[in-house]
Write the structure tokens for this entry.
Amino acid sequence: MKENFELIKQYLNDMNIPIISEDIDEEIVVVDDENLSIKNLIIDCEEPIVILEQVIMKVSSKKDDLFERLLQMNRKLVHGAFVLDEESKIILFRDTLQLENIDKNELEGSIQALSLALSEFGLELLEYA
């Protein structure tokens, strides 16, 4: 539903988060906000949810305890989770929200949760890179 997509874009505009690209047909925007450590965060409106997903890093060969540690990190996240792609080669941050009744505070909370996760765990994750 295009009105939900437009609402998401309006919320991002209200939060001063720049949209760097968008696909109107697929209802996807990509945003960057250096102050929040957000780079190429994909926001995809897929009725009935909105998906927020950002690549964090590639999985290196030093992964003996990485997957266990990711689960431990997830326990401390306010929203979303660190996840793996289908081949277990890329770590992403992912969150989903109900699109039907989304409000600006909810979207902002998910974006802030990503920023907080990166500030809290970013250096530790880099040790696995």
